[in-house]
Design goal:
Strand order of the largest sheet: 1-2-3-4
Number of strands: 4
Structural class: alpha/beta
Number of helices: 6
Strand content: 15-25%
Radius of gyration: 21 Å
Distance between the termini: 42 Å
Order of helices and strands: HEHEHEHHEH
Largest sheet: 4 strands, parallel
C-alpha cells in the first residue's frame, strides 16, 4: 500500500486511474483509495463491476472518487467478455447500488469486434492490381 501512495506523491498527477484487476492486493484497495483521496487527488477506479456491489463498503463517497464501469458491448457481448452469464445485469445492479450510496459512476461502453474489417479500393489502381491492393490496404474508419 505504501508503495502505491509513494508513487502518487512522486508523480504529482492530479488524477490516478486504478485498473481494478491490476490492484496488487484486493484487501488493501479501500485503504489505497482512501489515501489517494486524502491527498485530494482524483481517483478513477476502473472495474467490470462484477464484485463492486459486494465491495462498496470498502469505499466512502467523495467528490474525488468515481467508479469507471466498463461495459463490453450489449448484454450478450458483455457477458461473453466477462465469461459470466448475467454479468451485464450484475454491472447494472452495482452501478445503481453505488449511485444510491452517493458514489459517482461513469460507464465506458466498448464496441463489439463483430464488424468485419473493410478494405479500400482506389479508382486509380488498374483492374489487374486492384484485388491485391485491396487485400493489403485496410480502410481507415
Amino acid at each position: 500500500m505504501q508503495e502505491c501512495l509513494d508513487a502518487v506523491d512522486e508523480c504529482g498527477a492530479p488524477m490516478v486511474a486504478i485498473p481494478r484487476r491490476r490492484a496488487a492486493d484486493p484487501q488493501e484497495i479501500g485503504e489505497i483509495v482512501k489515501g489517494i483521496v486524502a491527498r485530494k487527488k482524483f481517483v478513477s477506479l476502473c472495474t467490470n463491476a462484477l464484485l463492486l456491489e459486494k465491495k462498496l463498503h470498502l469505499f466512502e463517497p467523495s467528490p474525488y472518487l468515481f467508479f469507471s464501469v466498463h461495459l463490453d458491448g450489449l448484454k450478450h457481448h458483455h457477458d461473453k467478455s466477462v465469461c459470466m452469464d448475467g454479468g451485464f445485469d450484475k454491472a447494472v445492479s452495482a452501478i445503481k447500488a453505488a449511485k444510491a450510496k452517493g458514489f459517482s459512476v461513469t460507464s465506458i461502453a466498448r464496441c463489439s469486434t463483430a464488424i468485419p474489417p473493410r478494405t479500400s479500393r482506389r479508382s486509380s489502381i488498374s483492374p489487374s492490381s486492384s484485388a491485391s491492393a485491396s487485400r493489403s490496404r485496410p480502410a481507415t474508419l
